[in-house]
Amino acid sequence: MSQEAIPSLGGYSEAALDQAFAALAHEVEASAQSLTSAEAVEAFRLHWLGRKQGRLKSISDAWLKSAPVEAKKLIGQRFNQLKAQIESRLESATGASSQNALDAEAIDITLPGTHRALGAEHPLIKTMHEMVAVFQRMGYSVGVGPEVETDFYNFESLNFPPGHPARDTQDTLVVANQERKPLRDRLLMRTHTSPVQIRTMEQQPPPVRIVIPGKVHRNDAADATHSPIFHQIEGLCVDIDVTFSDLKGTLDHAMKEFFGSSVKTRFFPSFFPFTEPSADVQISCPFCGGKGCRKCKHSGWIELLGCGMVDPAVFGFVQQKQPAYDPKKISGFAFGMGVDRIAMMKYGISDISLLYSGDARFLEQFA
Ligand code: PHE
After folding, report:
1. Mutation test of ligand 1: which of 192, 233, 242, 342 has the most ligand atoms closer than 8 Å to its C-beta?
2. pTM attached to this predicted model
């Protein structure tokens, strides 16, 4: 809106004044025609009501200055009316323009929402959680320990003395440049979750009922069923009068919970330095019911875990920190199972490396 000239008054009679103000009212209406944006409304406000340059002020200054005293009141009243008219125009325009702004921002509820892809558990972790939950329902709690372990916890305290041949079956990566340390303090990647048995018992007196899920490392050549990194779930139960039948009953129940109530278990003599006696546990094939199929290599049975009664020598190592582990007073059992094998069996995965490849096409099948 450009600055227009100030109209002149045709006299001070009421009729002349009414005519002059009618022309101004008309002008206000004309300039209030397209107040659809906030900018237009502000321009209109400045044009008419601007404190210094506003048209209303310039006109009233011009008209009032030269007016005779008796006309000033009449002129003033008409200016007030005009101002009210401008303000009412402003008010409705402001409402309208903010309504426009609201309309522009309004949510279109017919649009599809923002899709957030949900994550899912990795099949290994899922298997681990499910198995741990089986033992939690039997009153077990969950323990953890370091993946970088000392020779003492990984081997010596589990009754693998230095040079013992059983160490050769669990070859692993060792941290370099530790020759100056005594053997027992040297660091290596743990080969099983069993060191957490010792760490747990050192921390608390019996009774202990604990499961320890975790990652382990071995110097195994990778093939379809071997990976140098894999996962185990360890179990340890120590109390007064814990017997081999408790071990059998616990594992039989756990396998039925996990694989289905028709699954049977059987125990074979085995050897681990830290359990005596030791056993390997087989379950009847949950896929063919024991008839023989590809998954059980047509034998009807699948070997799943190692276990045994805690060797008194292991309690001997723990007693250095927790005297309550007196092998004459307490006893216990331990077991360890490979999570990867169980997950592969459960989901029909034929190559262990798929579990570690991070290939989304593989993982999406479990989401
Ligand atoms: N730690 C043994 C292994 O990795 C498994 C095991 C655990 C055996 C507990 C007996 C008791 O082979």
Report:
1. 192
2. 0.70
